[in-house]
């Protein structure tokens, strides 16, 4: 009965001013006409012009005045840390950062050079559909350059992941040289990315395989895999904003220690090719699942991978996580924010082991459930920005309306319009 009475009261109150939004619920943004006050213990944080959300925070919840923008809280935290003694400032900065910090990197994938690649590591190179406008034969491909400029300029994104099939890079010649024509087209997308000012992730999208067989474990030799990375590292050695993503979504790897040795060989080759300081992604087994990184032994095995100087500087764990019922990223409805089962335990492990991770694939449909859960997940990453470097949505580029998880913006003749999920959660 008390529950029913409360519901009745809320209904009778019947206007936005009297309503209080629950933790994680929407509390503002362009076009929002619902509740703007947050429940006790939470603040209304502005994520971007289109979306504000009630997020946990001490001393800001409930009643009029609970609406605080991220910017104003951050400014306050900075002031107090400057004007208080060292001991106090450590405490206040730490508590402030829990609710106001932001990950360093935010962006999306620009898919297309990976089209035709299957999870068994086959890549039908005739299936690619690059987001490079002047790509032959039809010269009418999606405008990846324009998309990235829009995301960078209008949505404050600063990282783009550029998946490509291994077979395409070497024109199906395992262990061979980068194909001048094919790599030339891929490099156009890379240069389009670099010219925005963003970081650009070069991602070989082969599931630890070449044509069905696993690298270093029955398939290509480590040397054949090292060969392609050595050439790529030579090309981009002097570009600090290139991020080397060794491999997309290894899965069903028989021996994780052997896989870690393969990853080590690539890291050593990239560094020795002259890319001495750029970020390199370390991919674990189980499709890089953020939930499995520690439990399946990937974290322990990959922790042993080192730079030639013995450090782990800029060697970053690279994880993926979707929010649909089977975590496959194939459904338009989301059912979880992945915090309790994935990101909270992973944050603890990363902190204990003094390491960092980036989420290079996450996303969902352009639906209310995905807006709710993905925004919650991203808010958690922001709150734990000491161990999470950023997030990259899947995916823009060559995807169109027919794709469940489309994040490709729409060109209306003189500007770009974002998809609902990008507006709500990924833009900032
Ligand atoms: C994995 O490979 C290593 C050698 O790289 C070997 O010592 C170890 O026994 C293997 N583990 C399993 C479970 O086969």
Short synopsis of the structure:
This protein has 428 residues and is α/β, with parallel strands linked by helices.
CA gyration radius, whole angstroms: 23 Å
CATH architecture: Alpha-Beta Barrel
Q: Provide a count of the helices.
A: 13
Here the CATH topology equals: TIM Barrel
| SSE series | HEEEEEHHEHEHHEEEHEHEHHEHEHEEEH
Detail the poorly predicted runs: 1-17, 61-99
The portion of residues forming beta strands comes to: 15-25%
The total of beta strands comes to 17
Number of domains: 1
> How many angstroms does the end-to-end distance come to?
42 Å
| Order of strands across the main sheet | 6-7-8-11-12-13-14-15
CATH superfamily: Glycosidases
User: What is the overall pLDDT average?
Assistant: 87
CATH class, named Alpha Beta
Residues in helix, %: 25-40%
User: Based on helices, strands and strand pairing, what is the structural class?
Assistant: alpha/beta
Q: What is the general shape? A: globular
InterPro entries: CBD, CBD_sf, GH, Glyco_hydro_5
GO molecular function: cellulase activity; cellulose binding
Keywords: Carbohydrate metabolism, Cellulose degradation, Glycosidase, Hydrolase, Polysaccharide degradation, Pyrrolidone carboxylic acid, Signal
Organism: Coniochaeta pulveracea
